[in-house]
Amino acid sequence: MSIIQISNRTHLEKVVSSEDKNKLLVLYFYAHDNQHSKTINEGIQTASLKYTKETINFLFIDSTINDELITLFKVTVTPYLVIVRNGYILRTMTGSELEDFVFSLDECSETLLTINNHHTTPVSANNTNEIDARQIKYRNDSVSSIETDSTIGSDSLLDEENDPEFNSDLNDSLSKLVQAVPVMIFLKGSPSEPRCRYSRQLVSILRENRIRFGYFDILQNDVVRKGMKKFSDWPTFPQLYVNGEFVGGLDIVKDTIKEDPDYFNTVLL
Ligand SMILES: N[C@@H](CCC(=O)N[C@@H](CS)C(=O)NCC(=O)O)C(=O)O
């Protein structure tokens, strides 16, 4: 059995920070007084027996008493599931998709391991098209910034205290970061508060095209800022990645769309 009942945000952060970063965490938001939630609760409880706590933890969160976590994860409906690994939200689920998922969990213990390969599953962004790549924080410093511009999460490889030289560990981490979601941007500031005009323009372009995207505020982490210049072989920000491939900076994006107004639809098929 690998279920932990989460009592509040502090508890969640404590649990998350004590876990191995490779472990899958399934955050399950439910309402204790809701029949649908009860059915799903039972399904998860049964399924969880198949998983060891070394590989996966199911974190149960009663949404009726956890306003703070609901706001943080933008939960608008329960039951609601968020699958997290290594600081990234791999997937969110509600409704019949969630039911099917829980059912398949019980049938086949490989289900979650499949999701572990996040290239196969899109990250959902709830009510917004923008996802902070680091919505979960694993370290102990200020938590107030989680909803907006938090510093990097679990991965100490991206910690500024680490060797700022570009090394293979950093390369691996950046490689995961650029593939965190199909459209990923590295910008200055956040989409709601870009801190340079180029970043602002790129955000506007993505919004105009109704593109769901993930982002990383490079002003929050100098290792990532320096590392991405080398990783992309590109000296400035913003930088756009689509399907894990570097597209370019703002000017290239503008030119690309000028040439092919349907560019995003084509590549994101
Ligand atoms: N025209 C460029 C503008 C980008 C740019 O010049 N960005 C600068 C100023 S925001 C930058 O990122 N400099 C490197 C740095 O700040 O690390 C583009 O196509 O993206």
TrEMBL record:
Q: Which GO terms describe its cellular component?
A: cytosol; nucleus
Source organism, top-level taxon = Eukaryota
Cell wall biogenesis/degradation recorded as keyword: no
Keyword annotations of the record: Iron, Iron-sulfur, Metal-binding
Start and end residues of each Glutaredoxin domain:
183-247
Supply one GO BP term.
intracellular iron ion homeostasis
Provide a Gene Ontology MF annotation, just one: metal ion binding
Q: Does the keyword Iron apply?
A: yes
**Domain Thioredoxin per the UniProt entry, residue ranges:** 10-98
Q: Which InterPro entries match?
A: Glutaredoxin, GRX_PICOT-like, Monothiol_GRX-rel, Thioredoxin-like_sf, Thioredoxin_domain
- Listed name of the protein: Monothiol glutaredoxin grx4
